[in-house]
Amino acid sequence: MHTDLLHVDPTRIGEIILHHTPGALLGEWDIKWAENSPDLAHLQRAAAQLQSTDTPVAFPTETVYGLGADATRSSAVRGIFQAKQRPTDNPLIVHVYSIQQLRGLLRPTPGNDPIPAIYRPLIERFWPGPLTIILPKPTDSVLAPEVTAGLGTFGARMPRSLLALVLIKLAGVPLAAPSANVSTRPSPTAAEHVKDDLDGRIEIVIDGGPCEVGVESTVVDGLTYPPSILRPGGVSIDQLRQCPGWEDVVVGYKNAPENGSQPRAPGMKYRHYSPKAPVILYEASTGQPTVDAILEYTGEGKRIGIIRTHSWPLACGLPVRLWDINLGSGTESVARGLFSALRELDKNGVDVIFVEGIDDTDGNIATAVMNRLRKAAQITA
């Protein structure tokens, strides 16, 4: 099939109207649609495809680009697994545009809020945003069984990207959406990355420009005590610990694939985020590679890529031919540029990639960056 990149400017689709109800968990919203807007027409085309076909649509979020399909139809969800070549025991995250839509998935009863109280402070602070919460799946769930991969729970989040929210609202259904890449590859933070991986496998990529955060959402489980983080991401452990009921949140993931078990959340079981070239990760405390170290790993005549962050000098001061990318010293800039840098070095055909790690002991988004790098790396120095 032919894959179209459809550019959409969020300022040209309409005027957002917020409705605040006192005591409500989150306010509802509506939109006064722009007239004769080609940007809106692109979103309407994508929404119609989500409603009427089993071919997924790629769309931007604030974290990475997602590959979305109607979370209530098995045939549509299977289209995600087919396009990504994703293992079917790896659960998907359900994206919603409103609290009302989420409550509908939980089968509310009169006078009872089906969203567990433990999540209320997180939703109030971090939604819309890069946080996924694990929720109990009702016995009569409308979600396709492929979404949860046999689990009795599902992950849900409300993205901060206006384009994502409007697409979900137009489609009228929750969207199951992992990252819009081929499984194991670096996550896509630009529409071009999606095109590189999925050209000919899907029909529509909504191009909303580069992603703001650059790493996936944090996944948390508050259904057991103490609550746990199943995947680090755009919300840090320190931020979580500032919320009532989350002071004792623990790390429930590993920085390596957890083979042999049913993953409770995406990103836990399988190798992820890997470019074609092998990655050699230098932890923040180990200095920089020497010529001898590079030759030990690569041999003569290899094409070498280097990703620098805080302290390595240009090309590490080495008298060898290489491709050098500097992500800057700010943690946020490293997060935004990491996956793009790995993909760029792959495009340049390097044989090996050396990466300068960053300090992840401060409890911020650096934890997510290093988690992704450790899962991508073949060797950690």
UniProtKB/TrEMBL annotation:
InterPro entries, alphabetized: DHBP_synth_RibB-like_a/b_dom, Sua5-like_dom, Sua5/YwlC_C, Sua5_C, T(6)A37_SUA5, TC-AMP_synthase_SUA5
Gene Ontology terms describing biological process: regulation of translational fidelity; tRNA threonylcarbamoyladenosine modification
Residues that, per the record, bind L-threonine: 95, 157, 177, 217
Enzyme class: transferase
Entry keywords, A to Z: ATP-binding, Cytoplasm, Nucleotide-binding, Nucleotidyltransferase, Transferase, tRNA processing
Subcellular location: Cytoplasm
Any single Gene Ontology cellular-component annotation: cytoplasm
Reactions it catalyzes: L-threonine + hydrogencarbonate + ATP = L-threonylcarbamoyladenylate + diphosphate + H2O
Residues reported in the UniProt entry to bind ATP: 63, 86, 90, 153, 179, 187, 231, 273
Domain YrdC-like: 40-235
Major location (coarse): cytoplasm
Keyword Kinase attached: no
Similarity comment text for this entry: Belongs to the SUA5 family.
Known function: Required for the formation of a threonylcarbamoyl group on adenosine at position 37 (t(6)A37) in tRNAs that read codons beginning with adenine. Likely catalyzes the conversion of L-threonine, HCO(3)(-)/CO(2) and ATP to give threonylcarbamoyl-AMP (TC-AMP) as the acyladenylate intermediate, with the release of diphosphate. Required for normal translation, by ensuring translation fidelity at the level of codon recognition, appropriate translation initiation selection and maintenance of reading frame. Also involved in telomere replication.
Protein name stated in the entry: Threonylcarbamoyl-AMP synthase
